[in-house]
Amino acid sequence: MKNPVMTASGTFGSGREYADFINLDRLGAIVVKGVTREPRAGNPTPRICETPSGMLNAIGLQNPGVERFIAEDLKWLAPLGVPVIVNIAGGTVTEYSDVARTLSRAGGVAGLEVNISCPNVKRGGISFGCDPEMTVKVVAAVRKAAPGLPLIVKLTPAAGDVVGVAEAAAAAGADALSLINTFPGMSIDTETFEPRLGSTTGGLSGPAIRPIAVKMVFDVSRAVRVPIIGMGGISTAQDAIEFMLAGASAVAVGTANFVDPKATIDIIEGLERFVRVRCIDSITSIIGAVKVR
Amino acid sequence: MGAPNGPCQTRVQVLSVQNLGTDVFVMRCFCPEIAKRARPGQFVHVKCGDDRAYILRRPFSIHRVTSDNAFELLIRKVGKGTKYLSTVTPQSQLDMIGPLGTGFDIPEPTKKAVVVAGGLCVAPMMFLAEELIARHIRLYTVIGAQSRDELYYYMDFKRMGRDVYVATDDSSQGHGGFASDLVPRAIEDGAPDVIYACGPHEMLAAVAGCAREYRIPCQVSLEASMACGVGACLSCACETTEGPQRVCVEGPVFDADRIEW
After folding, report:
1. Of residues B57, B229, B234, nearest to A42 (C-beta)
2. What ipTM did this prediction achieve?
């Protein structure tokens, strides 16, 4: 990666949605929207609502299925020369390993991000990521199905013992961990008494969850040796620096892409400026450099 | 980066903010990039200040393009974002993305068109009506509002074509009821080649039903809550005969018979 700034899955489509606004090849990596074995229609609308300093979403993993993803989106992305990381999801362990196998044969994929943390689907997703034993099963199966591809496992803040799940994922063969996915949440319209999301509950993202995410990155980075991709409400270079100080080796920008299509580029430039102003060799030198009192 | 006719993210200069009613105002903006590219039915995605408590952009239909350099938005104050916009002073700048989405299609040869607008959804229909008039297409306009005070564009439509049908919820002007109730009359008077509609979902469903009955092509502009506005987040999906489609990219204008009403 030419810099530590990536996009967070689900907030950047398949990349081409942002080609009108930024040079995609400046990104450290593009993490695309979650892909499943079969096409998925997603959840009923409304699928988002705004909340203080953030938003709830319940998209429900709408995607065209892995075959069409490869034929259309990956075909468009691969020639750009930016590492493409494909977020994969499923309702069963077999679905995860089937998607991983298909992608490992496709070419043009730099890595897989195993999504065991989606709060918006009935099976799989978050229910796997809250349970260290299920985490091991999914990660080991994907590892076996795609032996040649770097594996990132995306964790949920809803796990009671995030460190335990992180250790399980690392032991099962994860090359890196990304944390955190959205936090389960709900909002109710006090006029109509109805939930503000079509599927009642959703996942909270944006600056509102940043302190939770920073703490989880801090905790997990002290327990496991694999690199961590930190995410959760990063909107500025300063936010990215905070995650790296807490122990993240790279960062992903999510909700901020919706607010400002140029967010990733502003953060990359901000990190470059930080390196210059602080006279440090590289931004990597601040990884885990928080001075705990 | 961007295609020459694609959307851009840019600083837009506010030229004026004019109140139309208690909660409704027109914001005129200077921005050649957007004004030159905009098509009727497209929208802009507007950042409403720097308050970190509410971060998402707000989408607004382009209401009118007044010159090569300027366009207008018609806005109702409903929440924090629109309240902020109502306080913006001339000369200040707003961060906008646009023009976004797929607008209305004017098939050749169209000679007569019915335009249906419910409430503040008249916003994109003014831009469309002006484009239709410029192409010498005769207009039959159906407008609906809660009451006569909110029929902001009655006189403008009257100037553009004498056939204007009015419905108000409180019977203070014209037909007491929905704009869609008047669509059969407009169709029978005008024998239009195409029907264009924007309004509440139930109204659009009724207009689409009418159009089907009379076998006239109909295009509807949908509303949906959205985050990114550029097709990435998939929050504005709507059910169509071809599966879920994005209101922000494939829409907001759709052929009515493609929508799963």
Report:
1. B234
2. 0.94
Respond yes or no: is residue A118 known to be catalytic: yes
pLDDT of residue B227: 97
pLDDT tens-digit readout, B187-240: 999 999 999 999 999 999 999 999 999 999 999 999 999 999 999 999 999 999
Residues 6+ apart with CB under 8 A from B134: none
- CATH homologous superfamily of A5-286 equals Aldolase class I (3.20.20.70)
CB A256 within 8 A of CB A262: no
Count of pairs with CB atoms under 8 A, one residue in A, one in B: 113
Nearest CA-CA partner of B79 in B96, B45, B56: B56
Choose from B47, B235, B248 for mutation: most chain A CBs within 10 A: B235
Q: What pLDDT is stored for residue B5 in this prediction?
A: 73
Query: Which member of A49, A118, A130, A279 is catalytic?
Result: A118
Residue A17: exposed, middle, or buried by beta-carbon count in 10 A (0-12, 13-18, 19+)? Answer: buried
pLDDT score, position B4: 62
Q: Nearest by CB to B1, which of A23, A41, A207?
A: A23
pLDDT band at A126 (very low <50, low <70, confident <90, very high): confident
Q: Which of B225, B226, B234 sits opposite A62 (nearest CB)?
A: B234
Q: How far is B189 from chain A (nearest CA, A)?
A: 38
